[in-house]
Amino acid sequence: MAQDWVVSGPCNIYVNNTLAAAGTGGTWSSLGRTTNEDGAKIAINTGVHKTTTTASGMAAEQAVTNNQTATISFVLATIDAAVFTAMRARLNGSIFSTPGTEGTAVVGLPMVGGTTPCMVGVRIVPTIAGRKYYEFLFCLQDGDATQIGPFANQPVMHGITMNAIPNPSNNTLYSTGTTPPS
Question: Is the confidence at residue 2, as pLDDT, over 70?
């Protein structure tokens, strides 16, 4: 079961490309801004394991939660190219054995923790005062879920989708408030 919500209005998107493996420290940088039409979308996914017995047949007799993840997506109308490049290098760069060898992946590389984490922090901050911000510290990309376009007579937009997992040390998926920390 998933819960979806859209953070209404334009939002500033910040990323932390220098988080330690434990999800601490680092520096937040402005990645870009969404428009009023293309806000940020967050889907909270709750994993459930259903248990059946011969007495219950196909109907579940019990359901046990297996934690939560989130899918975060946003379309950026403005983007900081240097921050975007650093984010892609952090998310994808340490997967490959040698920089520039995108066709040769390291099999079995831990993406969270370890010496070369492939995760970033994402903070979604509405530009309208008093609205809640959302901060996810363990964001990964399965593959390279970045879309650039449309083209022709349309302005170039950057669509980005990430998956967030809970902090392994305290099981927190995200934090929120009305005034983001500096």
Answer: no
Closest CA to 113 of 10, 22, 19: 22
- What is d(CA 149, CA 144) in angstroms, rounded to the nearest whole number? 15
- DSSP E strands in 8-132: the ranges are 11-16, 28-33, 40-51, 62-76, 78-79, 120-126
Structure pTM?
A: 0.79
Q: Are 151 and 157 within 8 A, CB to CB? A: no
CA dihedral in degrees (106, 107, 110, 111; nearest 10)? 60
Instruction: Return d(Cα 74, Cα 167) in angstroms, integer.
Output: 22
Report the C-alpha gap between 66 and 49 in whole angstroms: 7
